[in-house]
Amino acid sequence: MSDLRITEAFLYMDYLCFRALCCKGPPPARPEYDLVCIGLTGSGKTSLLSKLCSESPENVVSTTGFSIKAVPFQNAILNVKELGGADNIRKYWSRYYQGSQGVIFVLDSASSEDDLETARNELHSALQHPQLCTLPFLILANHQDKPAARSVQEVKKYFELEPLARGKRWILQPCSLEDVDALKDSFSQLINLLEEKDHEAVRM
């Protein structure tokens, strides 16, 4: 092969490498989903969301009204509207449901019987609310690292999830701040449900 042909071959290889590195264009935009996050005060909503956003735990302050966080994942961005869980706030939750595409419900699996009963009533109300009843639910049994924590099976039975949520899209997962990988996996499952709902809407 002549020197000219060899030079041309190298120039062409350089051109292909340049195109591969520089001419791909911007990566496709990740889909965004608007979610509402509810649960009683002390259930750990703010701490869990802050952990997913890699925020310092020293800066976590319990939500009294509502706050919004953009929680980034590799395949989606979740715009989470967290609502305060105090008695005087919960009666206004439904005002913030409009536009939600999914629900995160956080419960304290190590709470008192009275608080667990209140959490069950609030979850039942959310599952049956006209603006939420068709949406995917991620139910997080938080504080699994505490000695008094109920197991997922105990929570499922106590909250009567099988009969109440039959036919709905829901996931019940254990979680704690000590296991961020499991927490991220729970949210990945929720994203899968959100994507499935998107695909169904497109087919319709």
TrEMBL record:
Annotated keywords: GTP-binding, Magnesium, Metal-binding, Nucleotide-binding
Cross-referenced Pfam families: Arf (PF00025)
Annotated residues for binding of GTP: G39, L40, T41, G42, S43, G44, K45, T46, G85, N142, H143, Q144, D145
Domain of life per record: Eukaryota
Coiled coil regions, renumbered to chain: none
Positions bound to Mg(2+): T46, T63
GO MF term (any one): GTPase activity
Similarity comment: Belongs to the small GTPase superfamily. Arf family.
PANTHER family (UniProt xref): ADP-RIBOSYLATION FACTOR-LIKE PROTEIN 15
Protein name (database record): ADP-ribosylation factor-like protein 15
